[in-house]
Amino acid sequence: MLSTIALVVAGLSTGNKIGLAGVGIAFVVFALISSFVLPRRNPDFPGRGLGWYVALCVLFFVAMISAVLYFDREPKEATAATTTTTTTTAPTATTTAPATQGDATAGKAVFASAGCSGCHTLKAAGATGTVGPNLDQLKPPLARIVLQVNKGGGPMPAFKGKLTDKQIQDVAAFVYASTHSS
What we know:
Blueprint: H1 2-11, H2 14-41, H3 50-71, E1 83-87, E2 94-98, H4 104-113, E3 121-122, E4 127-128, H5 135-138, H6 142-151, H7 165-179
Helix pairs in contact: 2-3, 4-7, 6-7
């Protein structure tokens, strides 16, 4: 249970964590005040103000649920178009193929050294991780792989700054070639 909560929290952006924490703290402070402070000052609490107290409780409940729903959303990621058009021998036939800039062979070594196999399943790398998605089943497009490795997301850390741009292109080429070869 705790690992699931940690994964969900890790997936939130900093702004969302702050907003959700702020609403959560307000909710907890309200609960503590109405449990300990108000009954001590007024033994008849809530007494004649029961209607107002229930309305305030409902308001805090709705605010907390709304905050969870609102801060749960992440901004949509821009997808980069990385396809090129190549012409075959027939002048009328064109195909689209991803522009792979990396070296898939070098990418296999990066996949192993960066610890990707600890989280992902990828048959070509002999990886059987279960934290991240199964890349063999997901078959992500090249642009998505590059974006995910650069920026991270969910429990996956960002590798921009940890890996060189060449290493990121290499590992993306390896994952793409491994998952789209069949």
